[in-house]
Design goal:
The chain is mainly α. The protein folds into 2 domains: 86 residues, Rna Polymerase Sigma Factor, Chain: A (Orthogonal Bundle); 78 residues, Winged helix-like DNA-binding domain superfamily/Winged helix DNA-binding domain (Arc Repressor Mutant, subunit A), CATH 1.10.10.10. Helices cover 74% and strands 0% of the residues. The protein has 9 helices and no strands. Helix 3 runs antiparallel to helix 4. The chain starts with a helix and ends with a helix.
């Protein structure tokens, strides 16, 4: 029986605990490994929340600075490290969104591409832009729920815990967000067809 309890405790251990302990001891290899493990998802989260890759990179950098400062004091079992990292990133995104003075629906500048693009690629870019615009137009909590659930591929349980709400409240937010997103995307297609 004791073996079962110990093996269950080991299987429930935070997968980042040992790496974080090494970061806390200022091990450069551990820092590189942690960045390689967490950076892609943090950048994706921040880019989707902010709609700006450069701002997302700033947010990710600030998250890693906070990890560096907090790693030696991290206590396993109080919260999952991945949940904490996502919460820090989301809070930094919200700080930036609150600090913006310009129109949040402003178009992002197009990248300069000297080569001619095939129609399919142009249509894909236009569709991506419509989705980004529709996502940016959602209320912040609905956008957060969608990004965590679909783009960050979190389970409903994990996303709800991260947002500090019940699973039922998350599902309600997701339903409203999908409905609002669908309405905006249909509206943008109708507007496009009229022009």
């Amino acid at each position: 029986m004791r073996l079962t309890v110990e093996s269950r405790a080991l299987s429930e251990r935070d997968p980042d605990a040992e790496l974080l302990a090494q970061v806390g001891r200022q091990d450069p290899a551990a820092v590189r490994s942690l960045v390689a493990r967490k950076l892609p998802r943090l950048l994706a989260l921040a880019t989707r929340m902010l709609g700006d890759r450069m701002e997302a990179e700033d947010v990710a950098q600030e998250v890693f600075v906070r990890i560096w400062k907090q790693a030696s004091r991290w206590r396993e079992g109080e919260a999952k490290f991945d949940t904490w990292v996502h919460r820090v990133a989301l809070n930094l995104c919200y700080d930036r969104l609150r600090g913006r003075r310009e129109d949040p629906h402003a178009e992002l500048p197009d990248e300069v591409d000297p080569a001619a693009l095939p129609d399919a690629r142009l249509e894909a870019r236009a569709q991506d832009q419509r989705v980004r615009d529709a996502l940016a137009a959602l209320p912040a909590r609905q956008r957060e729920a969608l990004v965590l659930n679909y783009y960050q591929e979190m389970s409903n349980h994990d996303a709800a815990a991260l947002m500090g709400i019940t699973v039922e409240a998350l599902e309600s937010l997701l339903a409203r967000a999908r409905r609002n997103l669908r309405a905006q995307l249909v509206g943008s297609v109708v507007d496009k067809d009229r022009s």
